[in-house]
Amino acid sequence: MTFDTSSTGESVATALASCIKGKTVIVTGVTPGGYGAETVRVLALVGAKVVLAGRTLSKIQATMGAVKKEIPGADLKTLILELGSQKSVREAAAEVLAYDTPVDVVILNAGVMGTPYEKTEDGLELQFATNHIGNFLFANLIIPKLLESPAPRVVAVGSVGHFWGPVRFDDYNFEDGKVYDKWLAYGQSKTANILFAIELAELYKDRLLAFSLHPGGAATSLNQHMTKEDYEKFSDFFNSDGTPKGDWVRSVAEGTATQIVAAFDPSIVGSNGSYLVDAKLAPEQAAPYATDKDNAKKLWELSETLVGQKFRP
Ligand SMILES: NC(=O)c1ccc[n+]([C@@H]2O[C@H](COP(=O)([O-])OP(=O)(O)OC[C@H]3O[C@@H](n4cnc5c(N)ncnc54)[C@H](OP(=O)(O)O)[C@@H]3O)[C@@H](O)[C@H]2O)c1
Fold first, then answer.
1. Using a 6 Å cutoff on CB, does residue 41 contact ligand 1?
2. CA 75, CA 114: separation in Å to the nearest integer?
3. First to last CA, the chain
4. Which H helix or E strand runs over 52?
5. Contact, 26 vs 99, CB < 8 A?
6. What is the pLDDT of residues 143-163, one digit of tens each?
7. Which of 10, 29, 73, 194 could lock onto 212 through a cystine, CB 3.0 to 4.6 A?
8. pLDDT band at 240, cuts 50/70/90?
9. Helix or strand or coil: residue 227?
10. Which family does it belong to (predicted)?
11. Which of 39, 211, 26, 34 is nearest to 102 (CA)?
């Protein structure tokens, strides 16, 4: 089976239904209108048990209500997870570890983009903390539950925006904000998503699969921090009203296809750690600094330091 730009999350999930039915999948960042919400919907459609994880209960419930309306028998539950707080991440992970069934797949979809400079309660720049460190901690803490599955996968939703910048190993906090550039910071965090999948795959080899991906460009609430100046600066990619334009535009339905392929396609198992775009493997579309194995190791060690815990198989 091959998938491409014409695929949607629903068409991929339907094609891979036999791999998805009955599996437990945690999807983070399920706000209505975004990739996560559509991922929940298409997984539920083919009989997955889906855990809707996020920081805003009302938004989780809105997505849950919409999915239940369409699929009354959907097996859904909620998980409160604030990725910008290591305390919250640890509490959410403890809840997952108490489940009485394995977790087969976690799709780390939640993220923020282009936020003004802010440090989290753990002292980390907000985009790096939310988009990478929170994911790193959550995924590692729930690995025992994933390893109970016969075919566990971790999917890190990255972005073509990783081209905006590498991980700033010596200054991930932008000199405490003095030299902050919100696009370099988004780039850093999305580069980290790709490196994270590489090192996770390297450490766990055939015991666990990890993939990263770019879903496409769609107008979602991710764009809430973009200003008129940002749209002008990136006028090749956005219209003046903030809607994406050009070759990278994918509807939410289309972008979701890449998430489902990364999470379930059996034909990619031989490419553990790889990056996907447009519902297929596309490692050549990642920046060299985002696929560098030394950078992946270095980021793992830095992340362990920043969460105060070592994670090795
Ligand atoms: N849209 C695009 O064009 C595009 C392009 C490339 C990559 N992506 C990636 O796709 C993923 C999904 O984005 P989207 O476009 O679907 O936007 P979205 O609908 O805004 O999804 C982002 C989700 O992340 C959640 N979130 C933000 N901060 C969080 C935190 N601290 N803790 C827990 N959850 C948090 C949001 O929850 P709240 O609503 O409660 O804040 C929301 O549910 C992101 O990783 C993004 O980088 C998107």
1. no
2. 34
3. 33
4. strand 49-54
5. no
6. 999 999 999 999 999 999 999
7. 194
8. confident
9. coil
10. Belongs to the short-chain dehydrogenases/reductases (SDR) family.
11. 26
What's the pLDDT at 313?
Answer: 93
In the block, tokens 């060299």 appear at: 288
- The mean predicted confidence, pLDDT, of the chain is 97
Among 28, 30, 35, 196, say which to mutate for ligand 1: greatest number of ligand atoms within 8 Å of CB. Answer: 35
Containing 66, the helix (H) or strand (E) segment is helix 57-70
Question: What confidence score (pLDDT) does residue 18 get?
Answer: 98
All residues at 6 or more sequence positions from 229 whose CB lies less than 8 Å from its CB, including other chains: none
State the distance from the centre of ligand 1 to the C-alpha of 180, rounded, in angstroms. 21
Residue 9 Cβ inside 6 Å of ligand 1? The answer reads: no
Domains of the chain: which residue ranges? 9-224+256-307
- Please tell me whether residue 205 adopts helix, strand or coil conformation: helix
Nearest CA to ligand 1 atom 42: 29
Residue 284 identity: E
- Indicate if ligand 1 lies below 6 Å from the C-beta of 291: no
- Enter the pTM of the model: 0.98
> What CATH number belongs to 9-224+256-307?
3.40.50.720
| pLDDT for residue 32 is more than 90 | yes
Give pLDDT tens digits for 65-86.
Answer: 999 999 999 999 999 999 999 9
For residues 133, 134, 136, 142, the Cα torsion angle rounded to the nearest 10 degrees is 160
Reported as a single tens digit per residue, the pLDDT across 176-206 is 999 999 999 999 999 999 999 999 999 999 8
Q: Is residue 275 helix, strand or coil?
A: strand
Mean pLDDT of 41-55: 98
